[in-house]
Amino acid sequence: MNDLEIVKMRLEQIFDSDQKAIKDFKAGTLTLDGWKKINEDNLKCVRDLLCQGIFPFRDTFSEKAYNAFFLAVQHSENIDLMKQVADYIFKADVVQVNKTHYAYLIDRIRIFEGKPQLYGTQFKKEGNVVTFLDIEDPTNIDIRRAELGMESFEEYKKKTESY
Predict the structure, then answer these.
(1) Which residue, of 45, 77, 109, is where some domain finishes?
(2) Are residues 106 and 138 part of one domain?
(3) Could you read off the pLDDT of 27-51 as tens digits, one per residue?
(4) Is this prediction's pTM over 0.85?
(5) 3-state class (DSSP) for residue 96
(6) In angstroms, how far is the first alpha carbon of the chain from the final one?
(7) What is the pLDDT of residues 85-118, one digit of tens each?
(8) For residues 88 and 55, is the Cβ–Cβ distance under 8 A?
(9) Residue 72 CB contacts under 8 Å (≥ 6 apart), including other chains
């Protein structure tokens, strides 16, 4: 097994760990501190890869490995790292990345910076009530979303209700 296969396997384990943590947290069997610890461990691997100049594009590694990398960054509170990864995604070819991930990172960064989001990806859900965080220029949100190949905001809102 070569080094890239080992990295791919580790990232795929991170994906599974991330998804299990979310499920356990929602079920009440994992505390917020426990979830944060898992996210911190996952993020360490991501930082190590970037320090080595490795970005796990999906056409080089796998869709699952790429998604693990993205989710570790998305679930972090590290704005500088989110900006770095958003830049990689923005500059990459659509074969290498999922362009919608750019929107998720940019919106998350803007929320952390106290600014309204651009793409409407960030929301809070309490019970069955979904509340989207402030959106800048909501009249043109679907134009911005379409530029990244995203569904309309109305379609996305309907999907969030089933989360």
Answers:
(1) 77
(2) yes
(3) 999 999 999 999 999 999 999 999 9
(4) yes
(5) coil
(6) 38
(7) 999 999 999 899 999 999 999 999 999 999 999 9
(8) yes
(9) 14, 18, 39, 42, 43, 45, 46
